[in-house]
Amino acid sequence: LRVASFGAQRAMSSLPSHVELTMPALSPTMTAGNIAKWMVSPGDKISPGDHLCDIETDKATIGWEAQEDGYVAKLLVGDGATDIAVGTTVMVICDDEKDVAAFADFAPATP
Fold first, then answer.
1. Among the four residues 18, 45, 102, 107, which has the most C-beta atoms within 10 Å?
2. CB 93, CB 72: distance < 8 Å
3. How far is the C-alpha of 97 from the C-alpha of 43, rounded, in Å?
4. What predicted TM-score, i.e. pTM, was given to this entire model?
5. Rounded to an integer, what distance in angstroms lies between the CA atom of residue 45 and that of residue 104?
6. CB count, 10 Å around CB of 104?
7. Could you report the per-residue pLDDT of 30-51, keeping only the tens digit for each?
């Protein structure tokens, strides 16, 4: 099963144009999930439909797919990360490959 929806927000900051992807709610009752394994690494080009990672819930493991073109700028949690709250930023993508390095020390803003 592949899931197409995900949380994303285009961020406005001093960094190059980017989108912060957040842990999606894969069911109405899901409050947290696990990243079983990333299929991408920083610097990888992604396109709609590319398999980003496998997310484990209490009921299933589901593939998370890219929804737009870009480059993986930063993975904020590693393989095997557990109990990640829905809405937590887990990945950043940017528009241009040359901008990936600008995100080496990226940390999401705290609410």
1. 18
2. yes
3. 7
4. 0.85
5. 17
6. 9
7. 999 999 999 999 999 999 999 9
pLDDT surpasses 50 at 94? yes
Residue where the block lists tokens 């920083």: 42
- Give residue 58's Cα distance to chain centre: 20
d(CA 30, CA 11): 25
> Which two three-digit tokens encode residue 45?
């080009």
DSSP symbols for 37-97: EES--TT-EE-TT-EEEEEE-SS-EEEEE--S-EEEEEESS-TT---EETT-EEEEEES-G
End-to-end CA distance of the chain: 32
3-state SS, residue 34:
strand
